[in-house]
Design goal:
By secondary structure, the protein is of the alpha/beta class. Helices cover 52% and strands 14% of the residues. It has a domain at 40-147 and 223-293: 2-enoyl-CoA Hydratase, Chain A, domain 1, CATH 3.90.226.10. Strands 1, 2, 4, 5, 6, 7 and 8 form a 7-stranded mixed sheet that branches. Strands 3-9 form a two-stranded antiparallel ribbon.
Length: 294
């Protein structure tokens, strides 16, 4: 048994051994990098003269604290005249998607926001983008999937096989709705369906209002359909099918910036934020049975 666990965790222990063994070397090389390869002039431009900012939304939407922080900083920074919101995300949890959407809406009241779909802009990530002044999608992007889903496991047979039984003390008829330990009852499914339907109605109502679409025709642009960029433009979900440079030019014109200077992000911090965000998102999305716009 010991050998089994040793082999199972050997990749993890190998990584930890490597980090422990070469920790000083890694720290030394990191210091050397920042001393010799960071550009002090670039730092000066970033702090003193930047007038446009790029904010990225990548991967599953679960923890959006960093995105909201960047939006808030852009809103308060008087030097920033416009924001490019670059999205490549399949969606995620409903509540964080809505948080971003309304943060973008508030930002748009102060300065223009252009969303650029660099890959996938679907479900929750599309919701997050709807209040932008413009939505521009890469010709190869996938757009849409406007829908809501709630999933869970049914583990009763597995629990029986391994000899585990659950015990529950509850108050409230619906308190066990969504439990993975048994099949959901018809009244539980009906109640959960009402939650899904109400959330979906909120989704399509906001999309219709933001994009100036007729909600009566929601099956043409919503209904969880996936569109190519060209198809998405035809149904009114995006404004243009173009490249990143076109999106940047569009923002510069909306922001009325004659000499665009883009705010630079710390590359090391960006890398670490992205790494941690992806790791946390994968774990939470795997085990969460909350509402997902994905």
């Amino acid at each position: 048994m010991f050998d089994f666990f040793r082999k199972l965790f050997s990749p993890i222990t190998a990584i930890l051994d490597f980090i422990t063994k070469y920790f000083k070397t890694i720290v030394f090389l990191t210091i050397i990098y920042f001393i010799f390869f960071s550009n002090p002039n670039e730092e000066g431009i970033k702090k003193e003269f930047a007038n446009l900012q790029k904010i990225e939304l990548n991967g599953p939407i679960v923890d959006v604290s960093k995105v909201l922080e960047n939006i808030n900083k852009a809103k308060k920074d008087e030097n920033i005249k416009g924001v490019l919101f670059v999205v490549d995300s399949p969606g995620g949890s409903v509540a964080p998607s809505v948080e971003i959407a309304y943060a973008i809406k508030e930002l748009k009241e102060l300065k223009p926001v252009v969303t650029y779909a660099s890959g996938t802009i679907a479900s929750g990530s599309y919701y997050a983008s709807i209040w932008s002044n413009k939505i521009i999608a890469n010709p190869g992007s996938m757009v849409g999937s406007i829908g809501v889903i709630m999933q869970g496991f049914e583990l009763s047979e597995l629990l029986d096989k391994i000899g585990i039984q659950t015990q529950t003390v509850k108050a409230g008829k619906y308190k066990e709705s969504g439990t993975p330990t048994r099949k959901w009852t018809p009244f539980e499914e009906k109640q959960l369906q009402s939650v899904i339907d109400d959330t979906y109605n909120m989704f399509i109502t906001d999309v219709a209002e933001a994009r100036k679409l007729d909600i009566k025709n929601h099956t043409s642009f919503a209904d969880a359909k996936i569109f190519t960029s060209k198809q998405a433009k035809e149904v009114g979900l995006i404004d243009e099918v173009a490249t990143l440079s076109f999106a940047q030019d569009s923002l510069e014109k909306l922001a009325k910036v004659e000499k665009p200077v883009w705010k630079k992000e710390d590359r090391f911090e960006k890398f670490m934020d992205k790494l941690m965000s992806q790791a946390i998102s994968k774990v939470l999305m795997s085990f969460s049975n909350s509402l997902k716009a994905i």
